[in-house]
Amino acid sequence: MTRNKLNVWLSIAFALMALWALGGIVLLDRSVETVPSEPAAADSLKVLIRTGTESAALRELLAPFKEATGIRAELIEVGRDGYFTTVGTQLLAGSDTFDLVFVPNTSIAELASAGAILPLDPYIRDPALTDQETFDLQDLLAVYTYQEKIYALPTDISTHFLYYRSDLIPEPPETWDEVYELAEQFSQSRNPQSPTQWGLVMPAVIPEERTKIFASLLWTFGGDFISDRDGHSRLGEPGSVQAARYVQQLLQRKAIPGDLLYWDFVKTRDALLSGEAAMAAPFWNSAYPMIQSDRNSPFGPLIRIAMLPGIKDEQGIVRRVPFQHGWTFAINANSKHREWAWKFLAYATGKEGGERYVKAGGVPARRSILSDPAYKSTRPDFQLILDSMKVARSEPSITHYPLMVEITEKALAKIYTLDSSPEDAMKEATNDLNRLSGK
């Protein structure tokens, strides 16, 4: 993208943000902190959700929820490709065609600032709606806030693992330096005798996958997207550049696929199952149950999971910072059934709903469920999720998050295609991000 085109693009982005902000003023007037009375209409609760494993698992909650509350809930499923466009358009236009919406935690600041979703604190505090002991807010691994108010609770928690072939690598690597050595050892371009074509693979497609996967490396190497202190971009700082240089050097050495930009979740998982790859990292925790349940691959039983590697400091302590994010439920500010929406949200993110969600293949965000000894043998990934979450980070909760991702992903594309040095690409991204945020 040329400088002139970038300036035009940023101008359009600012105009859209201003329009959203104006719309947010109108919506915010409608969004009050008191819990309204429930309308008497005997219709159903509408839940907007994207099609996939999450919707399949949540569908299993509809019947028990109705049995417990007498409220009929139905899912409005939207394809994954058009989901974010649909959510943004409908919410910011003030649509009341759905009551609950399924969104990633990174959308909360944007939607809350526009008054498109409701704060949940009044519902959580109301004893007529929420039994504090049963609901147990402290049991949740994360809650998502904006300006010190809770706007969303997670149904799912996702983080990054290291996947490795235990027949080739008896002990998982502790550091990214060790990963680098193993990546070369088990890549046929570096070692023609390697039993696998690639020593290391990882997803790097867009939208967002590239940035999220890179985030674990970024933070572990001491870099960041923006400063918590003043909001300035940190992509041009030494730690951020070092993380980008690490991936580019692996590409230059042909220890990871040269077409990395086309590797997605499925291609990465299948490379492990086909015996094409010795390791995958950073890679999503959700791949583990899929790999374990595959009965056709002779390599599936050989694949193990471990904490994401880190960087060893001067004291010999390994510093790891895996990425984490949550898929959440938020209440549409224009919902006609706000109490119903809260009841389903509380059920889906609660302990009973969480237990049912596990049986349907989901990964609930409750410590008590993930640490339950009943799952120790059947879901060993649960304990690793808990261990990872102790040191994991999530992306910044900012109103211009989509544009931050756009800038970051374009910089990474230049780095991963070897079209630019990490220093130049990250410096340009820093300048663009600072202009975007007015820094």
Can you describe what's shown?
With 439 residues, this protein is α+β, with helices and mostly antiparallel strands. It folds into 2 domains: 13-147 and 324-389, 3-Layer(aba) Sandwich (D-Maltodextrin-Binding Protein, domain 2), CATH 3.40.190.10; 160-323 and 398-437, Periplasmic binding protein-like II (D-Maltodextrin-Binding Protein, domain 2). The chain is built from 18 helices and 10 strands. It has helices at residues 3-30, 53-59, 62-69, 83-92, 108-113, 121-125, 132-135, 176-185, 209-220, 238-252, 265-273, 287-293, 338-349, 351-359, 367-370, 381-389, 401-416, 422-437, and strands at 45-50, 73-78, 100-104, 144-146, 149-165, 279-284, 303-306, 311-312, 318-319, 324-331. Strands 1, 2, 3, 4, 5, 6, 7 and 10 form an 8-stranded mixed sheet that branches. Strands 8-9 form a two-stranded antiparallel ribbon. Helix 9 crosses helix 10 (238-252) and helix 17 (401-416) runs antiparallel to helix 18. Mean pLDDT is 89; it is low at 1-41. Keywords: Signal, Transport. This is ABC transporter substrate-binding protein. Pfam families: SBP_bac_8.
